[in-house]
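Figure 2 data, in text form.
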Amino acid sequence: MDRRQFLKDLGIAGAGALALTSPWLSAFATVDDSAHERCRLGMIGPGSRGRFLLGFLAQNPKCEVVALADIYQPSLEAALDIVPTAKTYKDYRELLEDKSIDGVVIATPLNTHYQIAMDAFEAGKHVYCEKAIAYTMEETLALYKKHVETGLVFFTGQQRLFDPRYIKVMDMVHEGIFGDINAVHAYWNRNNDWRRDVPSPELERLINWRLYKESSKGLMTELACHQLQVGTWALGKLPVRVMGTGAITHWKDGREVFDNVHCIYEFDDGRQMTYASVISNKFYGLEEQLLGSLGNVEPERGKFYFEDYAPAPAPAFVQMLMEWEDKIWGANTFAGSSWDPEVASKNPGEYIMGVAPDRTIPGSDGTQLLTEAYVEAVCTKHQPPRIAEEGYYATQLCLIGHEAIVQGKALTFPENMKIDYEPYATSVA
């Protein structure tokens, strides 16, 4: 999506309330002033996700991707098809030695994020790191502190922060249009084994790193990280407790991470956010359902629904059944007559952006705008507000959820893992 059209569609010009909801959009405030600025970037880990990001970066006139680093030669060769003039390295540390490189994009396996990002900060590079940003809660905190200490730009792969539908929804949510948001139900379902072809057996754990404990925490870090951030963004606070369960029930192929997970996140006022992911059935797909007292939102579908929707009068024979049931059971004994269950099947809802979202367009989930914002931040050397903090807490929430599943008990969010972040009312001494 074109940046100017994106801002126009949102009505961002002069929209104070929207700026409060998504202040990281200030990254675009300097695009005209920095029209002649350029930055030089290095890509560490140009695998499938890395090359997807690379496709947008290569089209951005404000940046030049000058270096690539990966231990897997086929990934380097595929990336060179996109940026043929880039230098290539097997060791990312050699890339970091190039003082002409301003920033890096990290899209490597989860267990390597921390060390690579820390080394990049030490080398004076700005950092974009795919989610989850670290393998443990302790690493996540140390990485965030390093960002604060160095003052270097730090972006994370939370593209929903730049998805027009989510931005518009959050503005409506925070204005109270849907009443009190009393629950969030998030889920991401697929039906595939999550495996990739391996040309040689010794490359199994390198290529299918998502399936093994030493390099991955599975569905929680790969999928939940996106959706938990949506829930806290909507509720404006951090959950205090989490419990969960997970298992391998379908894909019994030697993998070590769960193929289904379910978590409940509890807030201090009793509200709850649930998360579920199953990869043996795709019928319900993915969604974050925000349930308010006046309406409901499904941002992934791009729709919202008001509770007071009034469908056309019931056919005569249905009204007759209603009257007959009322005579036998009494009118509205609990939730209305049994013929009229509390479902929303007849409520068509409204499209958030006026039209149905088109997921066939690459980057329509906010990824392109996220990469553009990162380039702008590197050019101006200015960290937009809240991006690093939202990414930090998204990672911490998926990690503590995974730990609750592994330990089989409810866990409280550790006080020593909280950072100074006013929107979630967290602070450190």
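Caption note: The domain at 3-161+364-390 is CATH 3.40.50.720 (Rossmann fold).
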